[in-house]
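Pipeline run #58 for the internal structure catalog. This entry was flagged by the ingest filter as a single-chain record with no existing model, so it goes straight to prediction. Upstream metadata was stripped on purpose; only the residue string is passed forward. Reviewer on rotation: M.T. Logging verbosity set to normal.
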Amino acid sequence: MDKIIGHKIIKLRTMTDAEAKREGWEDDRERPAVLELENGVLLYPSCDSEGNGSGVLFGYDPKEKQHFGF
């Protein structure tokens, strides 16, 4: 957890083909969101805890009272 706590998110983007291949997800139709941290750590959702496929990042904006997904 030390690799993520207190580190700033500097970019939100779609996973690249090379990153998907590295994770064994090259056959997934959709690429997940990737959060890039200032220290170079990349965070991305998986469909399960074993990393069997990519997932979707969901959120909620309390000011707008809206759910969103990426």
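catalog note: The chain has a mean pLDDT of 92.
catalog note: The chain has one helix and five strands.
status: ready for reviewer M.T.
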